[in-house]
Amino acid sequence: MVRNPLDFQGLLEAAPDAMLGTDQAGVIRFVNRQTELLFDYDRTDLIGQPLEILVPELSRKGHLAHRAAYFANPEARAMGTGLQLAGRRRDGTEFPADVSLSPFGSGGDMVVVAAVRDVTEQRQAAETARNLAAAEDLVRTAMGSASIGIALAGLDGSFRVVNRALCDLLGYDGAWFLAHRLHDVVHPDEVEEVLLDRAQIIAESIDKSTTKLRLVRADGVTIWVRRVGVLIRDGDGQPNLIMLQVEDITAEHEAQEALTYQAFHDSLTGLHNRAWILDTLAVDLRAAKREGRSLAALFIDLDNFKVVNDSLGHVAGDEVLATVAERIVAALYPGDRLGRFGGSEFVILVQDAHDVLVVERCADRVSASIGVDLQVRGHRIVPTASIGIATSTSTSTPESLLRDADSALSQAKTNGRERWHFFDETMHAQALARLTVEDQLREAITASQFVVFYQPIVALADAHVVGHEALVRWAHPTRGLLSPGEFLNVAEDTGLITAIGAQVLDQVCALLAEHPDLPGPISVNVSAVQLAMPYWLTSVRDTLATHRVDPARIVIEVTETAVLSLVDSARTALTSLRELGIGIHIDDFGTGYSSISVLRDLPVTGVKLDLRFVHDLTAGNSQANALAEGVNGLVKGMHLTGIAEGIETQMQADILRDQGWEHGQGYYFGKPTTTPVTH
């Protein structure tokens, strides 16, 4: 006796493929859960309907004929026997399908059970295999005879073909490579650069890429290679593969590193030497002039060091110098540079000296670190140091800046040693002014002197408003309206930015509550200082609740460089906000060192292209144009909102729109105003 397929309903529901039964009239009698998922229908919408609703319109007539012929001569047909059709989902999308058929019953009671499987991926894999086979035939001979490693990789970084030389170089067999991707053999510190380089090749911003990087062998050994990447196109001219040539240059790299180290390092302390200080200072001064900032040079000399050498000998003196060098290193912040200038003299370079207190605190930390007593050959020594400080001007040279710092050092020694002295006394006046700003900020918070301005964010396609960015201004009672550049650094350094940020968010939420029809969300800037505060997340939630504002109408903007310094609690706070529906945008994208990892590790919903990239856009091809287009490709690929900020001209807007950027912001579209624009 032939059983009714409905007797096996449990098995049908457990089947991995879509299972459905039809009678001779082509009416669907039953379906399983996989059928609902595959075709995006509820089973109640399918049962009782003609089978042809699941067949593409152009194929329905032929399908009716095939169905009639099958019922005339029914037989079981397994998948993979050539019966491949096309399916049609509820939304009209079509997909290739492999189908098996099993008849149950006979005569007018016959029911045919069809098992349907989406074979899109299999077909794509087969097409890829055919393409790769053709490519392999072209390059197999050359790759096999090459003495350097060669590989063909997909645009996603997966290895497709590797030669024997690459297997020997990295210690893996060919099967291992075909199951892994390029970044699996790249040193972790190089992965981001490799991903960006690949994106640039695919975006055609560069035709060929030559890179020196580190790879990790199967035995864990790191090697240096010179890698050349070339984009290969298919028959239609579309990017298809990347050919990689890998040459081992470890010995060459190590020899060069040894020579470089000897040329620019002090053998006693391991610090950089005088030559490095002068070369680096020249580079840093040029960067400072270009960016409109100043450097600080701290010239350090150990007090009475000659006494140590004369009384205990040069070996003891060398021991003191090595210890002092370690203590100075421990007292520095990331970005500060240090070198031994000679004898008992050291030089520190502070990259941004706009805030005098930063420089003064550096000098205090170094003095305190040096001044801890130590035992040398049975003798207790309490080393002290005098420090001369000079800041650069637009005309400074390495020699003049160090000369000024040395002059200040001499003055510090004249004043009694064990102290620091500025070459330019104007910096003391700046320190006093900074303290004044701090006091006035505290008063401003109490008096609610901060005002929010709104700059529109527009769709580049037609310039209609899609949102705003909230920008804080200080309505100073005597100095007038002050921009963030005149108080924000002090606010962040003192932690007052948290209270200011709370007032800004409160004003923004009040405005959103008052204007429920305001187009798009409002972006609010948040500093790393705020994110690090344990109560910040609760404060944001409370403010939204107080004003009854939908979280989706708020976007939190955090600069890329600030994100890199976030503690785990701050990252958790951002994740919690995203779960509420608040957007998370990375501001000034492209200025940090881990742009891609930021997008990977945080719940980011949008990216704002740094205005410096926009400022450098040109009518013709340029690096800035290529970078902007590459970032847009990354943003689109990760399905993020992309906003180009700092647009000031029609040309910039046109270039960005043509590159595919969807949103823009800048004075070209509208200046910040106290009232948001709606069109």
TrEMBL record:
InterPro entries: Biofilm_reg_signaling, EAL_dom, EAL_sf, GGDEF_dom, Nucleotide_cyclase, PAC, PAS, PAS-assoc_C. Pfam families: EAL, GGDEF, PAS, PAS_3. GO terms for biological process: regulation of DNA-templated transcription. Residues 81-131, 209-261 form the PAC domain. It comes from the Bacteria. Residues 293-425 form the GGDEF domain. Residues 434-679 form the EAL domain. Residues 4-57, 135-194 form the PAS domain. SUPFAM superfamilies: EAL domain-like (SSF141868), Nucleotide cyclase (SSF55073), PYP-like sensor domain (PAS domain) (SSF55785). This is Diguanylate cyclase (GGDEF)-like protein/PAS domain S-box-containing protein. It comes from Demequina lutea. The lineage of its organism: Bacteria, Bacillati, Actinomycetota, Actinomycetes, Micrococcales.
